[in-house]
Amino acid sequence: MPLNVISNFAANVAHRHLAMSDMEASNSVAKLSAGTRVLSAKDDAASLAIGSRLKAEVSALQQAQVNAGQAVSMLQIADGAMSRISDILVRMKSLSVQASSGQLSDTERGMLNQEFTALRSEIDRIADDTDFNSTKLLNGSNSFSAGTLGANIGQNDGIEQFAFSSNTGAFSATDSVTVAYNSTTDQFTVTNDVTGISYTSEAGLSAPTPGNFRDVVIQGAGLTIQLNSQFDDTTDISANNKFLVSGGTSSSLSLEFKVGTGVDASDSVTINLASAKTADLASGLDTATIDTQSNADAAIGQVSTAIDALAQNRALLGASQNRIEFASANIATTVENTESARSALLDLDVASEMSNFTSKQILVQAGVSMLAQANQLPQSLMKLFQ
User: Fold this and answer.
1) Which of 9, 200, 306, 348 keeps 20 to 30 A from 61, CA to CA?
2) Does the model's pTM come out above 0.90?
3) The Flagellin C-terminal domain covers which part of the protein (predicted)?
4) CATH code, domain carrying 330
């Protein structure tokens, strides 16, 4: 090879290798700082694609596990309320047996009946009041909705929707309902045209501000009127203001809990919570009394039926709890194994990469030294001019 001062081949070669070593060292630093061996698709496109799907699956499974935990909490609330109702029924049976005995007069039975009817009302109160995140658990469900709205009670008139609660007893399917508004008192009056019973909201309501809604609760009717900003609180509503009630009620509440990551039936668990109201536990129990011996005898059978029905409902509830707890345990195992598979694809072997980085770091240091030596070679040719 001729000696020259124009082209420094050795320096060029040293520089090229130094650049490669520096790039590889920098890549190692990036992997070590990120903790992953696949920084971009160019590192391992297949592992990145599979690992990304597994990461999404793990995230979804973790949320499914949260869903299962919340479902168990919900069922525990329902079971706790059922336990109290069971205690009440036991007391009611004792009162019934006491009142059916011949040594008591009707006056004494009337005293016992006061406690009996109070306890009966307490069962219905507990059933109506037991909820989780505003979902009533033990009073059944309904699918009531307002259909065939009158021309003056639509969304353009400021009435966004009519919402029925799960404990409404004021309406039945196909009932005609009249909705009136008095701008003087700022009150809504809702009348069931079939029964003739009217229900009135609190006075002094006003239209919501633009972009917002306002709920108007019709006390005793199990109905809420939601207003939008188009509602005019200075104008009466007295004509073209009827709607028909559609839907119906059910003595059980069906809840679907998502314990999987897909949309198949196997990804959800459906649980039915039976109503714990007296009318649903035993026929006639909601009106039963023990003020006479014959009524007390009848109440004994009704309370016994209710105790059996509640025990069966609690057994079904317990079975559902155990099922969801096993589902949660299975999700935990699946998350563990899926995360392990994702880790094998994407996570960095720190020890191996640290060894690789050390090697590249040595090469960078050697390259810098050799490049400096190569740049000194042309200087030796200057001695020929001396």
Assistant:
1) 348
2) no
3) 301-385
4) 1.20.1330.10
